[in-house]
């Protein structure tokens, strides 16, 4: 097995570095991962998940208390409120950083002291599958490597991408409006270094195998610290080649394949998730042939679902779902509808027309949302993402605010929970957190609007108070999560077909891997009641059928059922 692994590593490296001597690099990587001592055998096309897998996404300090580090408080909160419900926790970058709320990492091998320490991380990893960020495209401008680069020392020299500002870089795709190159003083004079995301986030030079070796060393530490799920942040941008858009290049895909080979031979139960906030077809390419990412973020889902619920028309969402390929065994979608960033707009390029997108943006601004921009090659700017809490994003429709906010919000999550893939809840969605304008003003950037920091006692109080919407959100979502976990038809790789019941009912059928359970998921995405003929969804007459949510039964296959505004039915033949 070790010989086979070694050859696979050599093959990956030969593609990435065709002009270098590969053998020493391969030996170093295998040794760093300790695969020359203990090499395990991953099984191809093995599903590392089932319907019981539910993730929560949170910052390490989203919940704080007066008497302990935030990581201990987070651990306590999850244990207290989600026993046997949430089994995976994604703690957003918990390392020392200088900006971008953690994504400008200044020390990869440390836990940010205000959050806690590695022992806190290890304790969380014993109770939950721990997901952590591998911030792979860039590091902080105050990281030791960049400081050394500026002073001509190792490690650091050759670690960053240099470019001549006279070169034509207009084809480079970026999610920001800041200048791409940062002038930097070095012992060799002024150099211009590549900064995809901003001048405090300096891009690492993967064309230098020493950089790759450092990243592999970090991966080994994270495995030792209990990380099971690796989120490859901004991975689509990591390889640069002049004359291209520097996005999704073949070398990038090969690096992902290499990292998967190394990680899964160290831990066959480890999972790689690629974070690629790009158009849908490009995003899908990171599955490879079930040899790259185990999971890809389903980035088109959040904007399409929000658009569906504020327009009361599911045509665009339904067309997208019909075009999504079933994931091969061993791969699946990572479904989310809210995140620490915002509602990305690049993933709906080619899916929503301009007028629909314009109406969505205007509606979100009416509900208090902010717009972040990206630069185009002609010098103009284009909307990149909408920054808003999901609860506020669904406070009404394109016609304005209404009384259906809670029902609309629960409907959105019921859809996410039932779709093919692994569902992931942003922590703030679980309690219906609203726009935080004070935090946005304090931090000076739009994304802070959806990054509230709760005090644990205050949060416990509002979740227990039936007069607060937080309580009702929390209870509804807990019930839906529990129901999902009990249904084999909601396995992430179970069969899924889109149903055609008009533009106001978004519907699809799920069937368990053993074909014993079927669930017809009917969602009224409008603010008016919708009546459906049961024979339109082909309920098998010899089976007994029940809505898992309301527990209503259906005996007459020729009858109709009326869905209230934003009501969801999970009609199943097994319960």
TrEMBL record:
<dbReference type="InterPro" id="IPR013780">
    <property type="entry name" value="Glyco_hydro_b"/>
</dbReference>
<dbReference type="Pfam" id="PF00128">
    <property type="entry name" value="Alpha-amylase"/>
</dbReference>
<dbReference type="InterPro" id="IPR016377">
    <property type="entry name" value="Sucrose_GGa_phosphorylase-rel"/>
</dbReference>
<dbReference type="InterPro" id="IPR017853">
    <property type="entry name" value="GH"/>
</dbReference>
<dbReference type="InterPro" id="IPR045857">
    <property type="entry name" value="O16G_dom_2"/>
</dbReference>
<keyword id="KW-0808">Transferase</keyword>
<keyword id="KW-0328">Glycosyltransferase</keyword>
<feature type="domain" description="Glycosyl hydrolase family 13 catalytic">
    <location>
        <begin position="53"/>
        <end position="484"/>
    </location>
</feature>
<dbReference type="InterPro" id="IPR006047">
    <property type="entry name" value="GH13_cat_dom"/>
</dbReference>
<protein>
    <submittedName>
        <fullName>Alpha-glucosidase C-terminal domain-containing protein</fullName>
    </submittedName>
</protein>
<dbReference type="InterPro" id="IPR033746">
    <property type="entry name" value="GGa_phosphorylase"/>
</dbReference>
């Amino acid at each position: 097995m070790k010989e086979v692994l070694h050859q696979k590593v050599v093959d990956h490296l030969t593609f990435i570095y065709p002009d270098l001597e590969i053998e020493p690099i391969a030996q170093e990587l295998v040794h760093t991962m300790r695969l020359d001592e203990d090499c395990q055998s991953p099984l191809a096309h093995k599903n590392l998940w089932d319907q019981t897998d539910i993730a929560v996404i949170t910052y390490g300090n989203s919940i704080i208390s007066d008497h302990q580090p935030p990581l201990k408080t987070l651990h306590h909160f999850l244990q207290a409120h989600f026993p046997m419900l949430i089994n995976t926790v994604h703690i957003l970058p918990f390392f020392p950083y200088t900006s971008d709320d953690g994504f400008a990492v200044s020390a990869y091998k440390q836990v940010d002291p205000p959050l806690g320490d590695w022992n806190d991380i290890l304790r969380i990893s014993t109770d939950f599958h721990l997901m952590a960020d591998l911030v792979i495209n860039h590091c902080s401008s105050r990281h030791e490597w960049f400081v050394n680069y500026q002073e001509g020392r190792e490690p650091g020299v050759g670690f960053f991408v240099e470019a001549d500002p006279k070169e034509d870089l207009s084809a480079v795709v970026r999610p920001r409006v800041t200048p791409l190159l940062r002038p930097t003083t070095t012992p060799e004079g002024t150099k211009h270094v590549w900064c995809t995301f901003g001048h405090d986030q300096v891009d690492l030079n993967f064309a230098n195998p020493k950089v790759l070796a450092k990243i592999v060393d970090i991966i080994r530490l994270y495995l030792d610290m209990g990380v099971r799920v690796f989120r490859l942040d901004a991975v689509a941008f990591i390889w640069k080649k002049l004359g291209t858009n520097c996005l999704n290049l073949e070398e990038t895909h090969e690096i992902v394949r290499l990292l998967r080979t190394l990680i899964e031979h160290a831990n066959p139960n480890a999972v790689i998730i690629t974070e690629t906030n790009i158009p849908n077809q490009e995003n899908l390419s990171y599955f490879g042939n079930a040899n790259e990412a185990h999971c890809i973020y389903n980035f088109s889902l959040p904007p399409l679902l929000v658009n569906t619920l504020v327009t009361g028309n599911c045509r665009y969402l339904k067309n997208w779902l019909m075009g999504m390929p079933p994931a091969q065994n061993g791969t699946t979608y990572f479904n989310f509808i809210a995140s620490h960033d915002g509602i990305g707009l690049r993933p709906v390029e080619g899916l929503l027309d301009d007028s629909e997108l314009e109406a969505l943006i205007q509606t979100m601004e009416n509900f208090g949302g902010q717009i972040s921009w990206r630069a185009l090659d002609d010098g103009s700017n284009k909307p990149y993402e909408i920054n808003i809490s999901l609860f506020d994003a669904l406070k009404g429709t394109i016609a304005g605010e209404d009384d259906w906010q809670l029902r609309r919000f629960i409907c959105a999550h019921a859809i996410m929970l039932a779709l093919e893939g692994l569902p992931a809840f942003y922590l703030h969605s679980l309690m219906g957190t609203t726009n935080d304008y004070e935090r946005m003003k304090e931090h000076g950037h739009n994304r802070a609007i959806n990054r509230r920091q709760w005090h644990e006692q205050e949060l416990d109080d509002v979740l227990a108070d039936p007069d607060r919407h937080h309580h009702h959100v929390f209870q509804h979502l807990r019930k839906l999560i529990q129901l999902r976990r009990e249904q084999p038809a909601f396995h992430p790789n179970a069969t899924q077909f889109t149903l055609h019941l008009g533009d106001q009912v978004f519907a699809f059928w799920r069937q368990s891997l053993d074909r014993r359970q079927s669930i017809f998921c009917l969602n009224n995405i409008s603010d008016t009641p919708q009546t459906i003929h049961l024979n339109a969804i082909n309920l098998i007459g010899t089976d007994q059928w029940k809505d898992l949510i309301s527990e209503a039964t259906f005996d007459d296959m020729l009858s109709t059922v009326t869905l209230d505004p934003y009501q969801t039915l999970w009609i199943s033949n097994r319960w």
